[in-house]
Amino acid sequence: MEKEWLVVDKLLSKIKITSNPNNKPVTIHGSLDDLRCIGVGTDAAVFQYAHKPQYAFKLYAEDKKEKIQTEAEVYQRLKNSPFFATCYYAVYERYLVLSFEEGITLYDCVLQGIHIPHQVIVDVEDARDFAKEQGLNPRDIHLKNILLQQGRAKVIDVSEYGKEGNDLRWEHLKNAYEQYYDLIDGKTIPFWLMQTVQRWYNQKNFGTFDDFMKDVLRLTVFKK
Fold it and tell me: Are the C-beta atoms of 68 and 90 separated by less than 8 Å?
């Protein structure tokens, strides 16, 4: 292990991550002044160390450690693309050391009414094409997994790129952007509404995506 990460390694050893049922975000046990949590997922939490802010440390839940090596191998295959973070090091029994990526998620852009340029869609398409060329299956791409960086896209969380199947999340998101984004562009969207739409989508009890969007559009906030 690189010497500059030894201090962080000791700090992370004092943090415990546990997973939760029903695909809910992990629970973090413990806290330290020099470690700031910058992201929480269903398998891991991501921390930034105050004295090494250029790194992000993805600390996995105890029962998700088998995913560490898989994700590290995915990052290795994506290392020549500007659209993904860099993986510097993997402590296979605990965490990954990644590049810290500046930017705001598209989810927060929608909440705050920050304009999402079409270039972001183009960049994600290019990122997906690159991943496919490396023999990967880019999936689980959604609003919280895309950062807006000076008008361009950076795709984060590649943990599912080794899985088979198409979850259609990106196709649905792209379709929603192209057909409906003009209805909300520049408008702040309430958090409760975002949660409602997310819950409806995750339930997967709609027919076609157009049927789903018709239900969403019945909410008055989207009407012109």
Answer: yes
Nearest to 208 by CA among 178, 180, 179, 168: 168
Residue 223: pLDDT over 80: no
The pTM score is 0.88
Sheet with 146-149, side-by-side order of all strands: 104-105, 146-149, 152-155
- The number of C-alpha atoms within 13 Å of 49 and in the hemisphere containing its C-beta is 20
87-91 and 35-40 beta bridge pairing? unpaired
Same structural domain, 88 and 108 = no
User: Reduced to 3 states, what is the DSSP secondary structure of residue 125?
Assistant: helix
Q: Average pLDDT in the 207-220 region?
A: 79
Number of separate domains in the chain: 2
What is the spatial distance between Cα 18 and Cα 160, in angstroms, rounded to a whole number?
Answer: 19
Judge residue 79's burial from the number of C-beta atoms within 10 Å of its C-beta, 0-12 exposed, 13-18 middle, 19 or more buried.
Answer: exposed
Q: Is the pLDDT of residue 181 over 90?
A: yes
Instruction: Please give the residue range of the domain that contains residue 33.
Output: 3-99
Q: Are 55 and 98 in contact (CB under 8 A)?
A: yes
Q: Looking at 64, 83, 99, which one is the last position of a domain? A: 99
In which region does residue 17 sit, left (phi positive, over 0), alpha (psi from -120 to 50) or beta (all else)?
beta
Q: Are residues 91 and 114 in the same domain?
A: no
- Separation CA 157–CA 38 (nearest Å): 13
Q: Are 27 and 20 in contact (CB under 8 A)?
A: yes
Nearest residue to 109 (alpha-carbon basis) of 219, 204, 194 = 194
Helices 169-180 & 118-133, crossing angle to 10 degrees?
Answer: 160
